[in-house]
Design goal:
The chain contains 20 helices and eight strands. Strands 3, 4, 5, 6, 7 and 8 form a six-stranded antiparallel β-sheet that branches. Strands 1-2 form a two-stranded antiparallel sheet. The longest helix is centred in the middle third of the chain and has 50 residues. The protein is extended, with a radius of gyration of 41 Å. The C terminus is likely disordered. It is of the alpha+beta class and 633 residues long.
Length: 633
């Protein structure tokens, strides 16, 4: 039936003399309009007769012989003619399918590699990610400023309370250098007893003697909580220096006891302390006293807070040398106030910021992070679908896999970086809410998380600035230079660590800047930047001739190698990357395509599109001009 109907269409067209149009692909003659629907239906049905191997033939062999139009109307079609016609029609279907898929894939790639400004100009698509990112930046910056203001205020108050209580509870307390390892050292037995009894007596007199608002902590029965004195020493430590004998066990024990010096003078308190202190100090490690103090933070710039202070006074036997150094630390817990007064802040904005303002800012930051994370995940899903479409297209039509460069062209590090920033932001806001509600007091951890999240979100703003050529050159320079810089850093890290270990073992016992590996690393990094070079030279003891001579070789070689050589090489790498970035911006390609040949099949005959002129040039529309970078694919 199909043979007869196709034959009728051919003979009818020849008898009527209708003008035919030769198709470009497959060699099939499309006849008059009244027969076109029938012929196309025949083609669709007979295209299923093609074998699977016809899909692997080169497209250069697509042109087939035209159906013999000189045969008579009554002559039946031969089997060879039917096979030839079936193969031609099947080839036409496959060719049409190939070019349709190729055009669809090319359009999808063009849309994928557009930036938000090009999408808005060409298709009117609103850049939602850019809008929400700007809103998130504003919200997070305001949240950071308010949190930083509260942290600075709290830290300032705590430092003031620490210096105040240190002066009241610690004997010979130094305000500006309270943790100096040698400045506050004591060396005699009775000095330990004097320092301990001084702290205990002044603690019980704190309410009467101190100018600040302090009170002793009480338990549920309204009794004063006594300070706890703990002594840590080695379990066995007996030394006979005259006979060079010792009995030592490195296991340490801690014994604690509460001391009440509330109604006693300094002498009586000193006797109580002597009864607690050990008879022998051979195994003495440290002595610690914990004081619990109540206070209220009064401020005209914030709502007053009720705070429980924990003051720790420690006498530590430094490296078991007999030099007892003092340390004083202060921690706090915020508690709920039981006030019954009608307190109202003078400034209504303060109350608004403390209540509704903080809640709105925290909620807006959480919502915006969730929205931006959703948009980024949606983009990643779309990218994966396009990648699978491209991979299947190349596997089916070209029988090859995508190269590494072609596959990584779909990866966008900004998207994964953005998700990481959103997760970090949500974690920081969660910790901040716990801190505001008093459920958590890790102020420094919260500050680190929030600060890192805001910094990363501001860095992500480079993604949108990079859509402008002027800013994109700077971003592209870093992207191009980074692999070579990382290789250079990997090479010089071996040399740098060699200098670190050598400097620590040689100068560590004599120069304070090399006393530890961490300190040595910081000192050498400062030398690379030209900081404290002369001061480091002068700290080396000139009386030790060998050490002094070695220091000259060590410092001179390090400075010449890292300042004159390494920094110069790094600057040259960045300069070369700038030249490559400028060339890439002028040609309109991305940094992942520099020096690479990707999607060569899609770039073949790009200009031979519909609407091409006789010379093969395509008149560029405004949309095509915006898609120059994608067209080069």
């Amino acid at each position: 039936w199909y043979q007869r109907r196709v034959r009728e269409a051919v003979v009818s067209t020849q008898s009527t003399g209708s003008s035919g149009i030769n198709a470009e692909y497959g060699g099939i003659v499309i006849f008059s309009v009244n027969k076109a629907r029938l012929v196309l239906g025949c083609m669709l049905q007979m295209s299923t007769l093609a074998s699977a191997q016809l899909h692997r033939k080169k497209h250069s062999s697509l042109n087939q012989n035209v159906i013999n139009q000189d045969e008579s109307d009554d002559e039946p079609l031969l089997d060879d003619d039917v096979d030839s016609m079936s193969e031609s029609i099947s080839t036409f279907g496959r060719t049409t399918m190939f070019f349709n898929q190729r055009q669809q894939l090319r359009t999808a790639l063009k849309n994928f590699f557009m930036n938000p400004f090009e999408k808005y100009t060409s298709r009117g698509r609103v850049p939602w990610k850019l809008i929400f990112h700007v809103l998130k930046l504003i919200s997070l910056t305001v949240l950071l400023l308010l949190f930083g203001q509260d942290k600075f205020q709290l830290r300032t108050v705590l430092n003031a309370y620490k210096d105040n209580l240190g002066s009241l509870l610690v004997k010979d307390y130094t305000v500006y250098d309270s943790t100096d390892a040698l400045g506050n050292a004591i060396h005699r037995h009775y000095e330990i007893a004097d320092a301990t009894s001084y702290s205990l007596v002044n603690y019980f007199n704190l309410t009467d003697s101190a100018v600040g608002i302090f009170g002793l902590n009480v338990d549920k029965e309204n009794k004063t909580v006594l300070p706890v004195l703990c002594i840590t020493s080695f379990q066995v430590a007996e030394v006979d220096v005259s006979q060079w004998k010792f009995d030592f066990d490195e296991v340490s024990t801690t014994e604690c006891s509460a001391v009440d010096c509330s109604n006693t003078d300094s002498l009586e308190c000193r006797e109580k302390v002597f009864n607690i202190l050990p008879d022998s100090y051979d195994g003495f490690i440290r002595l610690n006293i914990t004081f619990e103090i109540r206070t209220v933070f009064l401020s005209v710039k914030a709502i007053p807070k009720c705070v429980q202070l924990y003051a720790d006074y420690t006498l530590r036997n430094m490296v078991m040398s007999g030099s007892i150094v003092s340390e004083f630390t202060l921690n706090y817990d915020e508690v709920k106030c039981n006030t019954t007064s009608n307190y109202k802040p003078k400034d209504s904005l303060i109350a608004l910021r403390e209540t509704l303002g903080q809640v709105c800012i925290d909620a807006s930051a959480i919502i915006l992070c969730l929205v931006t994370a959703f948009l980024v995940i949606k983009r990643i899903r779309t990218t994966f679908k396009l990648y699978m479409q491209t991979r299947n297209f190349y596997s089916f039509h070209y029988n090859r896999r995508l190269t590494w460069t072609e596959a990584t062209a779909f990866l966008n590090g900004w998207d994964f970086f953005s998700i990481f920033a959103d997760v970090l932001t949500l974690l920081g806001v969660f910790y901040k809410v716990l801190l505001d509600t008093g459920a958590d007091k890790h102020l420094d951890i919260t500050a680190v998380i929030i600060g890192s999240a805001v910094a990363i979100n501001w860095i992500l703003g480079l993604r949108f600035l990079s859509f402008d050529k002027g800013y994109y050159i700077l971003v592209l320079t870093i992207s191009v230079a980074m692999p070579n810089i990382l290789r250079l850093l990997l090479c010089i890290s071996a040399i740098y660590m060699g200098y670190v270990f050598c400097g620590w073992v040689v100068f560590g016992p004599y120069v304070h800047k090399f006393c530890s590996i961490s300190q040595t690393t910081d000192t050498l990094f400062a030398l690379i930047n030209g900081d404290e070079i002369l001061d480091t030279f002068m700290q080396v003891d000139s009386s030790n001739k060998l050490l002094f001579a070695f220091s000259k070789v060590y410092f001179y070689s390090f400075i010449m190698l890292f300042i004159y050589v390494v920094l110069s090489v790094m600057i040259s790498l960045i300069g070369d990357a700038m030249i490559v970035a400028q060339s890439a911006v002028q040609t309109g390609i991305g940094h992942w395509l520099i020096g690479a040949d990707v999607f060569p099949e899609l770039s073949l005959g790009w200009k031979q599109e519909d609407g091409a002129g006789e010379d093969g040039e395509v008149p560029q529309t405004s949309n095509q001009k915006l898609n120059n970078s994608a067209k080069r694919l």
